[in-house]
Amino acid sequence: MKYRPEVDGLRTLAVIPVVLFHAGFQRFSGGYAGVDIFFVISGFLITTILISELERGDFSIARFYERRARRILPALFFVMALCIPAAWVWLLPPDFEEFSASALSVVFFVSNIFFWMQSGYFDGAAELKPLLHTWSLAVEEQYYLIFPLLLWALWRFGRRNVFAAVIGLAALSFVFSLWQIRHDPEGNFYLAPSRAWELLAGSVCALVLSRKPLPGNDIAGLAGIGMILVAIFAFDARTPWPGPWTLLPVVGTMLVILFARQGTLAARLLSLRPMVWIGLISYSLYLWHQPVFAFGRIAFDVPQASKRMLLLAGLSAGLAWFSWRFVERPFRKGAQYPLPTRAAVFRAGALGGMVFAAFGLFGISSGGAAMRYPAGLSTLLAAGDDTSRNPCKVEMRDSLPVHPVPACLVTSGQKAPHVILAGDSHAWAVSDEVGRALRAAGVDYYVMSHSACIPVPGIYRLDLKPVDRCPAFFDGLFRYAREQGVKTIILSGRFTANLTMTYYDNGEGGVEGLTWMEDRVVADSVYDAANPAVPPEDIRRARVAEAFRDRLTALSQEFNLVIIEPIPEAGWNVPKEAMQRALKTGRVEDLSTSRARYLDRNAETLALLRELPAEHVRLVRSVDVFCPEDTGRCRNMIDGVPLYSDDDHLTNTGARLLAPGVVEAVRGW
């Protein structure tokens, strides 16, 4: 096919926003749309080549996969190979184990499924995953397992029928993505069925241009660029994606491909030498930027949206040029270069895959290569295993449960529980130990939690899609409680983060999350689908505070409430912080944070909770358990054993300290 420099310029328009978005620059809050541009470009280029071969009658699936291997694997394996020593030096065992598992998933091009089953793309922890960005490569390769053969099979029915079939499949995929927004927003983002329409959009362009090139059109080409820029600068982490708004960058890219022909203003802009040069190295730049950023944050605490982050972006560009010049180009050239034959390409790909798969299995089986650290750190290394094993936690990707879930109901022969433990992931974190204590006290109970959902009736998380999922979850749970005649409900949740819409800074170097995350928790008691904008902060906060008070008061008229006051946040990941200090000093020291800072941060929440009617509400004072008044400190560890598995979730050891107070509050009801 004839080279089009403006397509390389379009790649620049895709990769730069992605890089700056991942660097934390808020101006590029919709930079993730660059991946959608890549999908359309990929669909266009691949389909154009396939159509050319089908027209000549020399289509070869083996040749197709040889091209894909030459294009994808050398640079990918090069980046992964250099990530391994960095991971060995800088990643603690739990993170090294996860990195190893992600490397294994990359080899089999299922990393999109791997990361879907973990956290969300927009979560803070995601920024510390060196191979997170490979999800998009997995989507493409899964798509290209099917599409070439499908196109070959359809070709015999005529071009018009092929076009109709591609349009139909794109429409089905798009409709599925709209359905997924509500039912599985994380799966919608990561999985191929809801992304296929974007690649098929590129195929539509290829089919149109293969019949008769369209004349250049300045208005259409510039409009396409404008649509892409709107997506990059106007959207953010709260925009449902992919979804209806994704049409903006996808259609914009289609307009550029179709109408930004040679000689048009749009083509001249995209064909400027810097645009073309960056476009040429865009694949390597995409591969390099995420691990460089992740290791920069992990090893050197590089803050988001900083000058140091820009330096890391520059380093990524330098590495990208090197791998493009000395890895990508040589391996793509063919006979006189490395891997001259198809068989050599496939053998090398298989060998490389086996090497990285072996590494992944080693990292998993060795517990993250824990042998790298002294045996004296075993209690810190074990903190990740000292967590709740309760299966009764619902994630956003799960269907809402039908109650009762048998595994979550602990009773002595009778069907109805006396107590329900409900809440978000904080409730789940304490559920094993609180459950044991309740059982020892002869109390039958049911436990059910939902990650990220505020355990107050009618409170929405506007940043979670669908926004009515959390209220629906608790409505169903409380309905079950009424039907079963439950007497007491224990509530635990991250109330303060949802009320104040901020993450925690302990004032001693422990700052939870990353700066761009601070607007992620968007709780409100009012939601209007026709006007979903986040209200001014003073209005939002007042409404949430009123809902906390009024709706918990109303709930206390139906049930006895035991509310666990906010668990003290640590600010730092306790096991990791303790291990990093121990590696520097040679000894494990207990971590703690300021009691006064806890009281100041949670003052509004504690005041609201203590206004609730005492007749039917009992509070478990977390501050008395973890923050002795005489020391003025909140304990993160005791005798070298972490009370937290991260920065705010208790380990079973920590939950064991809290459980007696919960049982005492339940007693007599």
UniProtKB/TrEMBL annotation:
The family database entries (Pfam families) matched by this protein are listed as: Acyl_transf_3, SGNH
Which terms in the GO cellular component ontology are assigned?
Answer: membrane
The UniProt keywords, alphabetically, are: Acyltransferase, Membrane, Transferase, Transmembrane, Transmembrane helix
* Residues of the SGNH domain: 403-661
Is Metal-binding among this UniProt entry's keywords?
no
Q: Where are the transmembrane segments?
A: 7-25, 31-51, 72-93, 99-117, 161-179, 241-260, 272-289, 309-327, 348-371
Matching entries from InterPro entries are given as: Acyl_transf_3_dom, Acyltransferase_3, SGNH
Outline the extent of the Acyltransferase domain: 6-304
Give GO BP annotations, semicolon-separated.
lipopolysaccharide biosynthetic process
Superkingdom of this entry's organism? Bacteria
One GO MF term on file is: acyltransferase activity, transferring groups other than amino-acyl groups
Q: What is this protein called?
A: Acyltransferase
